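Sequence in, structure out.
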Amino acid sequence: MFGDKLKRLRTENNLTQDQLAERLYVTRAAVSKWETGRGYPNIDSLKQLSNLFGISIDQLIADEDVINHNLLEQRKSRVFFRWAMVCLGITFLATLGAAFTQLPYMRFIGLLGMVGYVVCGIFSKPRYKRMALRKYIVLYVISRVVVLVIVLAAAIAMISTL
């Protein structure tokens, strides 16, 4: 595991977490997260670590670490997906409530649900998959513009009826 390797390399080089953090221009808490497997360094920190310890990035991170990182990302994205579905349900129910009861605050609740749906929906795809989609930048930009137009149109329609 990456965290175990990092801790071993740090202790072999007689460095404390504070000293390593200082050399990498990160916080001690970041180093602690890396060593306990609750987080992973960005590519710049990986480069600095490999230079500092005199090993390649491949030696620093094994395939198993990449798989663990992707699994962690997938778990986080599932949570965002569930929240996106809750927000969509709130939007739907608030819209129905506004149509039948004519209560203006129901439209506001629907608008908040819509914003929550969009925000959570963006993060519901794991980061490594979002990055892979950027290869198709034109399609990516078009899809984001279409979603933005739809959300803005719905938001304007809700606000104008308040």
